[in-house]
Amino acid sequence: MERYQDKSDHAREAESSLPIILAAHGLLLLVLVTLDVNYPAASEWVSAAVQAEFVNPDITSGSPTQIAQPAEQMQIVSSN
What we know:
Layout: H1 7-38, H2 41-53
């Protein structure tokens, strides 16, 4: 039979992993700031990478948008 684990056990596990997560985010932030300070071209790399993710966001449609119209006239039938 499985032993029931108290919710406080899960809370302790979550609390113990929080400093590790914060340290990892802090380290990532430190690396990014260091790259930005020492290699100004790195910001251009990041900008180019972000722009590559989007497919020409400045594109405008050449023709006006047409709203689809039903082929036949629709009739409303009431139950009165």
